[in-house]
Amino acid sequence: MPVNNFSSSFEVTSLQANGLLLHRLISASGLNEFEIIKFDTAFKQSWRGSIPLENDFRIVHKKMFENNFYVFARGNSYYDFLLLKIDQETGSYTQYKMRNYIPFVPTEFQINSKLAIIGGYYNNVPIVVLFDFELLRLKVLPGLFSEIGELAQIKVHADNTFDILLCARYYNREKTIWIKSYTPEGDFITQKVLPTNGNKSLLFGRINQSVDDMKIVAGVYGNRNSEYSKGIFIASIDPFGESQVKYYNFADLENFFSYMKVKRQRRIKDRIEKRKMKGKENRFNYRLLVHELIPYKNQFILLGEAFYPKYKSVDRSGFFSRPGYGYASSSELIFDGYRYTHATILAFDALGKLQWDNTFEINDVKTFNLEQFVKLKTDKDRITLLYLFDNKLRSKVISGNNVIENKYTEPIKTLLEGDVVNDDLTLLNKLEYWYGDYLYAYGIQNLTNTNQIGGQSERSVFFINKLKCK
Q1: Can you tell me the distance from the alpha carbon of 258 to that of 90, in angstroms, rounded to the nearest whole number?
Q2: pLDDT, tens digit, 9 for 90 and up, residues 153-207
Q3: What are the residue boundaries of the structural domains of the chain, listed by start?
Q4: What is the DSSP track for 179-229?
């Protein structure tokens, strides 16, 4: 699909086996329209339509739930919310306009069978409001505390109950995780505060629920008042609220440093063994994004990505005009994006015992927005790790601690013979889950066709590729 500098790019949402939705906001002549196109899994168009959107609303979240696609927008004043409920089969929609009496920035958005669950911050304090689809009423979720903290996750379970994960300080000033559970209607059920151990603070986590109503919370821990993580924690909570937390220092993981070159990896492991022999704790500090916690066989899989901020020096040389002064040079450090080093994947049993760990090297990703790059597809005997960057798909296949296929790189295919992608001008690349063994890649490619005679040899196109994990 051709694009130009004046057209906004599409985003793509999975409908599982029902296909894909392409959507974008179009602004023209002072009017806003939300355009949607549905394709089936063979990329055949099913329907196309547009929904008018008031100019003072900005779309901030989109979510699929059951048969409907939900689009959430906030007003410029943060008092007004707008929710579109779009039937993915027909394209018909219902619009809900809400007046919120507490102005806040919405950062989280989830849906269950009865509610739209909207989370964010008011004066740095987490807040969650609920919109009831039957009563058409907005209310503040009960049971949250009025202290500064971090809203880590809103997790809706298969039975439509939901949990709110908050990262905040306990009475002993250690940072930990609070789990607040609610009925499908938003009534408070119970609260659990994960205990900390010594100087270990729980920095961030994700939650999931097993078939026997055990809840698993996994994430990263570190020292008090530190933004760096020292390792992984895993907490298991039984139906009666009893919990146990296990900690795994990065140095105790078998493959955490496998992304490094062999010589450096050997030096690190030698240092770890020497400190262990002396009875000293190994300290490795990482910034780690925790993305997914999913069930796999009789285990839970945790996926995270390590990153660090990069800075560059900018010359600020100038000439002083005062008499007696000449040239003076100075430099300033400015932020130059985040660099990712590797993804780590760990497996735990229902009691939090580590089963295995593995890594996937990421050596070419630079971004100014922290987001998930690595995706995983599970199979009976193996797991495929993939990420897309600069029009190239990288993959690695593992089975527990073992590597089945080392890192493999493959360019995203183009439609026409002779098309060459200019990687330096790649503006958008995304890799997302679809259905079964399939993922889809989409973005914008800047192409030059070496076979074309006459006409336009250089062009920009929006693409979607269907990818199968074999």
Answers
A1: 49
A2: 999 999 999 999 999 887 667 789 999 999 999 999 999 999 888 788 999 999 9
A3: 379-386+408-470
A4: EEEE-TT--EEEEEE----TTEEEEEEEEEE-TTS-EEEEEEEEETT-SSB
